[in-house]
Design goal:
With 291 residues, this protein is α+β, with helices and mostly antiparallel strands. The chain has helices at 7-19, 60-73, 95-106, 108-111, 157-183, 266-273, 282-290, and strands at 2-6, 25-33, 36-43, 50-51, 56-57, 78-86, 117-119, 122-126, 129-133, 135-138, 144-146, 149-152, 187-193, 198-204, 209-213, 216-228, 238-244, 250-254. The strands form four sheets. A seven-stranded mixed beta sheet has the order 9-8-6-2-3-1-12. Strands 13, 14, 15, 16, 17 and 18 form a six-stranded antiparallel beta sheet that branches. The protein has a three-stranded antiparallel beta sheet with strand order 7-10-11, with helices on one face. It is built from seven helices and 18 strands. It binds zinc ion. Residues 84, 86, 93-94, 97 line the site of zinc ion.
């Protein structure tokens, strides 16, 4: 067996391990395919985790919530195990680590997960070096063995294949989103940024219009950008409004006032928070009657 981990996940682990001096760690999510583990996500220990120099405990509520967010969007990945930091250069699993693995294999609470193996890598930050020793433990053997860990770019085909599977569900939804924006008369676009893993959906009326937004009236070119995290629609999109007058365009993040729920679509945000973008405001009509 071996494991493949994306640079992005390694960076996230490094960040967590350098954040505090004491022990820390988190969940590894991905997929076992053939004789390989492909690791696509790391979930940190959570706000209610406890850390000391030689031990720590996770915030299970936080980890499970984050895990559910990931699998809600990508049901082709699963929990592969836990990674944690050890003090100094101590790079072997402790008796507590073995106890933990035994608990996961045997404890009733975990039985519905039905693990037959667990990845339990150990991180050491020692003399400015960062080292991951990749341990695997199986349900039948119950001892830790080291298996190779290959760090690959996020664009590695095996990582992408898994992440793309995740996006199929999102992609179908986004097609429908784009369609509903078009029905509002908006010009639309969609981009995926590999570095931030954000999907950006743009919408603009395609002409200069007058709108009231947060009590400010202007007659300009407008563009809306919805930045969607991969856990969208569970997490609400961030909305950026660009206003272009004669001078340079100004982009500001706009708070969504509507109560977002996963049942909503982007067009709902426009109807609720930016109605002037699609329904011409009545001010001019009133003016016309005065003339
Ligand atoms: Zn340990």
């Amino acid at each position: 067996m071996k494991a493949i981990i994306s640079e992005k996940v390694v960076e996230a682990i490094k960040k967590e391990c350098t954040r505090i001096n004491s022990e820390t760690g988190g969940m590894l999510v991905g997929k076992e395919i053939g004789n390989e583990f492909i690791i696509t996500d790391f979930i940190g220990p959570g706000p209610n985790s406890h850390h000391s120099v030689s031990s720590f405990s996770y915030d299970p509520e936080y980890e499970l919530k984050e895990y559910e967010k990931i699998i809600n969007e990508n049901d082709s990945v699963e929990l592969l195990g836990w990674i944690h930091k050890h003090p100094g250069d101590f790079d072997r699993p402790s008796s507590v680590d073995l106890e933990f693995a035994n608990q996961v294999f045997d404890n009733k609470e975990w039985q519905e997960w039905d693990f037959d193996k667990l990845l339990m890598p150990i991180v050491n930050l020692f003399n400015d070096s960062f080292k991951i020793t990749n341990y695997l433990i199986t349900k039948d053997k119950r001892n830790f063995e080291i298996i190779p860990l290959e760090i690959v770019p996020e664009s590695h085909p095996k990582v992408q294949a898994l992440l793309n599977k995740s996006s199929r569900k999102t992609a179908n939804r986004l097609d429908a989103e784009i369609e509903s924006l078009k029905q509002l008369g908006l010009t639309t676009g969609m981009e995926y940024d590999e570095a931030s893993r954000l999907i950006t959906v743009t919408a603009n009326p395609g002409k200069r219009i007058s709108i009231f937004h947060r009590d400010i009236f202007s007659y300009s070119d407008f563009k809306l950008e919805f930045r969607l995290h991969r856990t969208y629609p569970v997490t609400k999109p961030a909305v950026f409004l660009t206003i272009k007058n004669r001078c340079t365009p100004i982009t500001t993040e706009s708070k969504i006032l509507m109560n977002w729920s996963p049942a909503h679509i982007l067009a709902d945000i426009i109807r609720f928070d930016f109605p002037d973008l699609v329904y011409p405001i009545k001010l001019f009509r009133r003016k016309q009657t005065w003339i």
